[in-house]
Specification:
The protein has about 650 residues and is mainly beta. Helix content is about 5%, strand content about 60%.
Length: about 650
């Protein structure tokens, strides 16, 4: 309800952090892996929106999903490539099958950036047709420049809008649904991240203050990004037997991205990067039961994708035109071995073909082709040790063919304010990962503890490695090369909840990740820092018309990242920082609906800090104090 970005919303999940590029761009990072290694499923469809860019936030409406779940650990058996790190699944609640008109209306405002936004949703059944339901939704949000603790972050405004519609039918045998959504966003790139010469670049990094600080404004100037994303989905299911079901899904996506640079001669209104990406996806899944002890699913999936550089930029494309086709088949089975022990095993095979069309450095048209054949497996056990304790273990392999950006990037990526260079000889990443979860109730049910240990070896691990600076006609920028190494990443997540007394609860969350470059025998670049979160929450009993009341104070401690490769980064990591947060919410019945109020405060002490995973930390501090207020009215069938 508070209108946060996808990255911000899931960063509260244990083991998940956010990879930021300034105050408005956020990507999810799971157990130290992000970008092309974390798959986002939007309405069950692979989100395809140029996610290779470190500063390309997922193009989906934060208001369009009521539930967000994160699958931590390699999920490549079911979902294929890009799921080495995990899967972020966004989905709305099920469509109504009958009943009256219902819906909700939300409004929100934020102090930092003077932001405001809203969302409206209507849904209902169709009279006389049991099992048929529909939903329409629309939203918008606007922010001006964000502010750090001591100064304005110039050109960091953002405007976005989204709309979606869906209809579905279900009875005991058949199901069918259609869904369509449209989303558009325009956002500014921190003006201070674009610098004219090498001396100024080094001064900006050394001084600790942005070289450019303008007056606060809602206007967005170059450098800026404009994106639009269309998603259409059709799905049909049929119950072949009492417990066996076939589901067919087709998805179509069209993604447009323009990035505008500061250009001489009044050409800043001409995009420096203009990409049009079209993706078709198809999935067929058979969910089955074989006796009382065996159930699972088997499926086929296919992707056809074309990327086109729209002519007219006047600049050599950063990534080339390409056509990608892939097809995969998988099977996953669950075996109930004993009353308290369940085993799962699965395997997948997938083929990918990539055709690239580009001009080489001599302006000769070339058409390189790449073929990748990959496989994945997983095996796991879920053991209910006792009524109050559970252990889960999973061992898996995963894969990821290199993205065309990693193979053929060539030039200035203005949104990242960096020159990025690909390597066409790169091969597929191959990961082997083990995850152990231990969960237990303690102190006669008053406390709960969870520990997750994970370890992954990734051969051919591809990342952007800094390689000095370069002065171009468009300014001075860091140079980053796509390189491959063998990586070993381990980590530990811990959670502890204690009901102190009555309505008072203490929640503790801690995460640590360690990454090693095995080829160079050094720490891995851009791994998340150790972090510790403490929350005291008070949930008073309902009083009169008021219910679901909660107020919570949260302390976030993020330690300085000291495990870094020597001599690689442009500057030393930022120091340890501490953030104080507050949240409060309550619900009140109103006529035939209910009114829900929420308040969220972040960085309440207005700390001046920089995060190691923020790509713009070289140029400016992160956001200062922010207070968001939201209100939702729910009525009818949605209440």
């Amino acid at each position: 309800g508070s209108g946060r970005t996808l990255g911000e919303m899931i960063a509260v999940i244990l083991g998940v952090t956010a990879l930021n590029s300034g105050p408005t761009i956020s990507k999810p990072m799971v157990h130290g892996l992000a970008g092309n290694r974390v798959l986002v499923l939007n309405q069950g469809i692979r989100q395809e929106d140029q996610q290779w860019g470190g500063e390309h936030a997922p193009n989906l409406d934060p208001f369009s999903s009521d539930r967000i779940t994160v699958v931590k650990g390699a999920a490549s058996v079911q979902y294929g490539s890009d799921a080495i790190g995990g899967v972020v699944i966004t989905e709305p609640v099920e469509l109504p099958r009958e009943g009256p008109l219902g819906g909700d209306v939300r409004g929100l405002g934020t102090l930092n950036g003077r932001g405001f936004g809203g969302n409206a949703l209507l849904q209902g059944g169709v009279k006389g047709v049991s099992g048929l339901g529909w939903r329409v939704q629309g939203s918008g949000r606007s922010m001006g420049d964000s502010r750090a603790a001591r100064y304005n972050l110039s050109n960091t405004g953002m405007h976005e809008a989204g709309a979606s519609a869906s209809m579905g039918y279900r009875d005991h045998r058949w199901s069918a649904s259609v869904f369509a959504s449209w989303y558009t966003r325009e956002l500014g790139i921190l003006r201070a991240a674009h610098i004219g010469n090498l001396t100024d670049l080094q001064n900006a990094i050394d001084s600790g203050e942005p070289w450019y600080i303008g007056d606060r404004t809602r206007e967005i100037d170059a450098p800026r990004q404009a994106v639009a994303h269309l998603l259409a989905k059709a799905e049909a299911g049929y119950a072949v037997t009492e417990r066996g079901r076939v589901v067919l899904t087709y998805g179509y996506q069209a993604d447009d991205r323009q990035e505008y640079d500061i250009r001489r001669g009044g050409r800043s209104t001409t995009p420096a990067l203009d990409l049009h990406l079209v993706t078709h996806t198809g999935d067929a899944v058979y969910k089955h039961w074989i006796g009382k002890r065996v159930h699972g699913k088997a499926g086929f999936s296919g992707v056809y994708q074309e990327n086109i550089n729209v002519p007219g930029t006047g600049i050599r494309p950063l990534i080339p035109n390409y056509r990608k086709q892939s097809g995969g088949a998988y099977v996953i089975e669950h075996f109930t071995v004993a009353e308290k022990l369940e085993i799962e095993a699965g395997a997948r095979i997938e083929w990918t073909h990539l055709l690239v069309v580009k001009y080489d450095m001599n302006d000769v048209l070339i058409r390189p082709e790449h073929d990748f054949l990959n496989h994945a497996f997983s095996a796991g056990a879920n053991w209910s040790v006792a009524d109050s304790a559970r252990a889960r273990f999973n061992l898996s392999s995963a894969f990821r063919p290199p993205h065309v950006s990693e193979l053929y990037s060539e030039g200035l990526h203005h949104g990242a304010a960096a020159i990025e260079i690909g390597d066409p000889t790169l091969g597929s990443e191959r990961a082997y990962k083990a995850v152990l979860d231990l969960e237990s109730a303690l102190l006669h049910g008053r406390a709960r503890a969870l520990i997750t240990a994970h370890a992954a070896r990734i051969n051919g691990f591809i990342y952007l490695r800094p390689d000095g600076y370069e002065l171009t006609v468009r300014g001075a920028f860091p140079v980053l090369n796509y390189v491959a190494t063998d990586a070993f990443i381990t980590g530990l997540d811990a959670a502890f909840d204690l009901r102190i007394a009555g309505p008072l609860t203490w929640r503790l969350r801690a995460s640590t990740v360690r990454g090693r470059d095995l080829v160079h025998d050094e720490w891995l670049f851009q791994m998340p820092s150790d972090r510790l979160e403490n929350t005291i929450a008070l949930a008073p009993r309902s009083k009169g018309d008021w219910k679901d009341m909660e107020i919570a104070v949260t302390s976030n401690l993020v330690l300085e990242q000291q495990r870094i490769p020597a001599g690689v980064d442009f500057t030393s990591p930022p120091p340890t920082y501490h953030l104080l947060g507050l949240s409060a919410s309550a619900t009140r019945a109103l006529r035939k609906g209910e009114l829900r109020f929420g308040l969220r405060g972040s960085n309440l002490l207005n700390a001046a800090y920089r995060d190691y995973l923020d790509r713009f930390r070289y140029y400016a501090d992160a956001r200062g104090i922010d207070i968001a207020l939201w209100i939702t009215y729910r009525f009818g069938g949605n209440n």
